[in-house]
What we know:
This protein is α+β, with helices and mostly antiparallel strands.
Amino acid sequence: MSAKHEETKIVEEVQEDEAEAMLTGISSNISLARKEAPKNLKKQAKRMKLISDATYPPVDIGGNIIIPIPDVDREKADLRNLIGVVLERNKDGLYKIGKKDGILNKLYCRSEFDESPQIFLTQEQVPEQKISLRTAA
């Protein structure tokens, strides 16, 4: 019985060693994945930016645009879109938009509006007053 007891003890020790080795391997894999995660997120962001730039080409300054107005910012009888003109574009690709009532106080990314083929408004027609989208609607 003591030989069988020793054999059982040896088997348990071997199983513990295997479990410990497996946990160490899993732990090192997790550490490696955590180190790689920021690099992979940056790569994914670059890919997304390239796709977005290809889908939404830049709009020239002075170009007319159409901004869809969210339902919460407009009343039932209000128009669904807002006509504006691009006043400037910053280095991050965000656009300052002007309207006959004034300059919208938020900067817009290219995916938030569509370019209009017609000219409705010029930069000179936009007053220097800041307004919100809700006010402009």
